[in-house]
Recover the amino acids of this structure.
DNA sequence: AATACGGGGTC
DNA sequence: GACCCAGTATT
């Protein structure tokens, strides 16, 4: 505390020239003294002049902020844009989300991944309708209590939509602040994230917390980038960033190495009855919960074994052809798939109630089939005539 | 504290 | 191929 930097009072650039680089870089006191006073006005100014135009920034609407923040969890801005527009058009408010049929909800999310995000969001929407009159509560704690909203998302909604002075610490913020302070703590640790929230809460401005949080994130997304060289030449806090000063941006942030993913062999069956292809619903829990899939089994089956599996499904195989192998990588599992195209007698297709026979058009419209099956979904036929 | 949970982009 | 990403819930 004895080394606290005086708070910013006039033009940030002049101010920085006057007090900063030498003094700040030399006394290696604690993080908050590096951050306090000066970083905040500099990055806020930069943010206001450089922020990207994004669909959810058009207007201040807590529901839009919520939807965008959930979509943006572990997902890039560019990927989210079209999903966001479609989602708020179809489901413009919490009440619409709360009453949306599951199938439609999954179609709206199809391809975004982490499908529990949207299930949790719908459960939270029900709570919002039932307990808060259809409007997201203006309280960090109440937001936190909603399904799918953790400390990051609660902080983002509270600060951006409601102007509440709470931090929103995501991967960008952890990276940016770790570099500015040249912290070598492992940012994967929950304890480090907690500490970061505490530090930021102390130094963030109370008059524009939303801009402050977004400035840190925007800086991380656009300038202080995660892979490749950070664009320090464009950075508003270049002169006081310790990692830049000491040329350690490549070492920071520090992250613990992650576990290798396990490999799983699977055999995918493209079962066709004339023009239609068999799909089925996945279990409600676990990987890709509640989505639709081409029937598939564990292991790499021979054609003979595949035929047996199809017979067990109470179908009558007429023809089988091996398809090209395919691979799909999840964050924690790698599927190595082999496929078979199997034609079955159409007389038998209604014996198995678990299977749905659909053409491509119908499944595009009604059934969410995750990208993992993409290599074999392409064998589905366009249209039943 | 560790693990489950998608998918796409970049180097 | 390895790594990354506007995280949260469960175990």
């Amino acid at each position: 505390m004895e080394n606290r930097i005086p708070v910013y009072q006039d033009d940030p650039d002049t101010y920085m020239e006057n007090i900063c680089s030498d003094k700040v870089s030399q006394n290696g006191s604690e993080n908050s003294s590096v951050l306090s006073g000066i970083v905040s006005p500099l990055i806020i100014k930069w943010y206001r002049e450089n922020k990207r135009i994004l669909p959810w920034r058009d207007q201040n609407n807590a529901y839009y902020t919520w939807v965008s923040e959930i979509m943006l969890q572990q997902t890039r801005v560019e990927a989210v844009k079209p999903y966001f527009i479609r989602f708020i058009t179809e489901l413009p408010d919490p009440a619409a989300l709360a009453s949306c049929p599951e199938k439609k909800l999954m179609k709206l999310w199809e391809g975004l991944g982490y499908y529990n995000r949207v299930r949790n969001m719908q459960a939270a929407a029900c709570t919002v309708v039932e307990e808060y009159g259809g409007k997201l509560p203006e309280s960090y704690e109440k937001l936190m209590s909603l399904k799918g909203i953790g400390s990051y998302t609660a902080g983002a909604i509270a600060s951006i939509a409601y102007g509440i002075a709470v931090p929103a610490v995501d991967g960008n913020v952890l990276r940016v602040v770790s570099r500015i302070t040249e912290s070598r703590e492992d940012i994967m640790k929950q304890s480090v994230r907690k500490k970061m929230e505490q530090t930021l809460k102390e130094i963030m401005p109370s008059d524009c917390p939303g801009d402050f949080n977004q400035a840190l994130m925007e800086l991380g997304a656009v300038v202080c980038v995660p892979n490749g060289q950070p664009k320090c030449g464009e950075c508003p806090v270049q002169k006081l960033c310790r990692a830049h000063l000491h040329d350690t941006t490549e070492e920071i942030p520090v992250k613990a190495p992650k576990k290798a993913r396990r490999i799983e062999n699977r055999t995918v069956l493209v079962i066709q009855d004339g023009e239609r292809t068999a799909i089925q619903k996945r279990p409600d829990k676990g990987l890709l919960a509640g989505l639709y899939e081409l029937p598939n089994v564990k292991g790499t089956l021979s054609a003979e074994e595949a035929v047996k599996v199809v017979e067990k499904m109470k179908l009558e195989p007429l023809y089988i052809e091996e398809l090209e192998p395919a691979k799909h990588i999840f964050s924690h599992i790698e599927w190595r798939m082999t496929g078979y195209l199997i034609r079955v007698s159409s007389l038998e297709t209604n014996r198995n109630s678990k299977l749905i026979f659909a053409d491509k058009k119908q499944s595009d419209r009604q059934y969410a089939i995750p990208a993992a099956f993409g290599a074999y979904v392409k064998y589905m036929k366009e249209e039943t005539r």
